[in-house]
Design brief:
By secondary structure, the protein is mainly α. It has one domain: MetI-like fold. The chain is 75% helix and 0% strand. α2 packs antiparallel against α3, α3 packs across α9 and α8 packs antiparallel against α10. The longest helix has 37 residues. The radius of gyration is 22 Å and the shape is elongated. The chain starts with a helix and ends with a helix.
Length: 277
């Protein structure tokens, strides 16, 4: 029971952080006077209630950073969960196929072709395709989430396939097959129970990569668009004005770096908890 509960600590912490960010944004929204807005970036605007100063349009920069941080965390988390589900399902299904069959060989060929392309470049291609086909129906938030999920399922599927191959060598699997159980029943009833812990740990290690991808894609203008924002978009705006208003660049950059460092520390701690349970 303790091991099962430990598996859900990390996503609950991420969801709790998203809830805290949303609550703080609501509190800040009610404390600022909309009619008394500064008209230029400033770092000396604490007297006006702006702790982190203001941006180019005189908006509170702390409020903008919280919005960007919430979007970066949510896009990274949801795209990883979607890509992990797709990759885990396909890897589990292919793993129970004949290792020398046409389905398995075709699947490995597709994975090799897709993974031969740099993941970030492939994500740019997916975003352009999604924007051209469904740009009028999907917001940039969902476009970026779908593109990141489409690039994340390949390593998850390959890892899940290998773990499923090892699972088939266990005694209870061979005994169940000898007694007449189908491999589909084994995949549905037992594979998830045995594979969820190593798969969950693998997905946690991929999560910082998705935060970086989201920030880089938004930095180059292919991700989140105005009037919404993300950490990558804030860093892009700050880069343009760094010589005159350095706080517009350094504050979101330090925020992103802090999140990545805390995430690294928390993943290491979570691994220790899981291995000790």
């Amino acid at each position: 029971m303790k091991k099962r509960n430990n598996l859900f600590i990390f996503p609950l912490v991420i969801l709790l952080l998203l809830g805290i960010f949303k609550w703080v944004k609501q509190q800040l929204l009610w404390t600022y006077d909309i009619e008394n807005v500064l008209q230029a970036p400033s770092v000396s605007s604490a007297l006006h209630g702006h702790i982190f100063g203001t941006d180019m349009l005189g908006r509170d920069f702390l409020f903008r950073i919280l919005i960007g941080l919430e979007n970066t965390l949510s896009i990274g988390l949801f795209s990883l969960l979607l890509g992990g589900f797709i990759g885990g399902f396909l890897g589990c299904v292919i793993g129970f196929q004949n290792p020398n069959g046409k389905v398995d060989k075709s699947f490995i060929l597709v994975l090799d072709l897709l993974q031969s392309v740099p993941q970030l470049f492939l994500c740019f291609i997916y975003i352009l395709i999604i924007q051209k086909q469904w740009g009028d129906f999907l917001s940039p938030y969902f476009q970026l989430t779908m593109a990141l999920a489409a690039t994340s399922w390949m390593p998850v599927a390959r890892t899940t396939r290998l773990m499923t191959r090892k699972l088939q060598q266990k005694n209870y699997v061979e005994a169940s097959v000898a007694l007449g159980a189908s491999r589909w029943q084994l995949a549905a009833r037992h594979a998830w129970v045995d594979l969820r812990q190593p798969l969950f740990v693998y997905l946690i290690y991929l999560l910082p990569q998705f935060f970086i991808f989201e920030s880089v894609i938004s930095f180059f203008g292919f991700g989140i668009k105005y009037p919404d924002t993300s950490l990558g978009l804030l860093i892009q705006d700050g880069w343009k004005m760094m010589m005159f208003y350095p706080h517009l660049f350094f504050l979101p950059a330090v925020c992103l770096l802090t999140v990545l460092l805390l995430l690294k520390k928390s993943t290491n701690r979570l691994l220790e908890v899981i291995t000790q349970a």
